[in-house]
C-alpha cells in the first residue's frame, strides 16, 4: 500500500544551521508529494509540493526535490530561524485526493 | 476570507460519552475531509465529502463514528460511545473543485481527550 516514512524528531538546531528532514515514500504509480507545516496553535499549512519526478518544490527558503529513483522527498533549508520551529509533515496523494501523511517531525530552533 | 474553522478546540469527555465535532469549510469549497492524529503518530484520513455525499469513507475506524454534511456546508463528526483510543487531534480540511488538483486547506484541529 501507499505509505510515508519520515525521520523521527525532535530535531533541535541553533539559528542559522542547515536543516534536513528525511522523507521516503512507498506508492504505486506517480503520486504528488507535499510538505505541510503546523506552527504552534495553528492548523496544517501547505509548505511546498511537487507533482512529478525531478520537480523541486520551494517556499520560504525551504526546498524539496521529488526523487523517484530513491523514492524520497527530503526537506532542506540552508539557514533556519527561530520562527521555523514547528511540526513538519511529509505527505503523498493519489486517487480520490486523500492525503497520506508521515508521523511528523518536530523542529525546535534555538537562538 | 475566513479559513476552515473547527469547534470545539478542545474536548475532554469520559469513556462511554458522546462527542460531536464540527467543521466549517471555506465558503464555496465542495470537498471536505476529516483526518485524525492519534498519539503523535501519522495523520490518518477518515473520510471525504463532495458536497453532501460521502465520496470515500474508507478511513472511518468503526461504526462508533458518524459523519454528516447536511446541505453540503458544515460537517459534524460524532463519536458514540467514545473509547480511550479515540483520543487525538481531529483535523478538517476543504478544497475547491476539481478535486484532483485543489489544495486542501486545514483547520486548527479539535483535540479530543477521552478519560
Verbal overview:
The complex is a heterodimer of chains A (about 110) and B (about 120). With about 110 residues, chain A is mostly beta strands. Chain A is globular. The mean pLDDT of chain A is about 95. Chain A contains no helices and twelve strands. Chain B is mainly β and about 120 residues long. In chain B, about 0% of the residues lie in helices and about 50% in strands. The interface of A and B includes residues 4, 36 and 89 of A.
Residue runs with pLDDT of under 50 for 5 or more positions of chain B: none
Low-confidence stretches of chain A: none
The two chains with the largest interface, and their residue counts, are: A-B, 19 and 28 residues
The total count of strands of chain A amounts to 12
Question: Largest beta sheet of chain A, briefly?
Answer: 6 strands, mixed
Mean pLDDT of chain B: 92
- Helix-strand pattern of chain B, N to C? EEEEEEEEEEE
Number of discrete helical segments of chain B: 0
- Give the mean pLDDT of chain A: 93
Oligomer: heterodimer
Element-level helix/strand string of chain A: EEEEEEEEEEEE
Q: What is the helical fraction of chain B, as a range of percent?
A: under 10%
Sheet/helix structural class of chain A? mainly beta
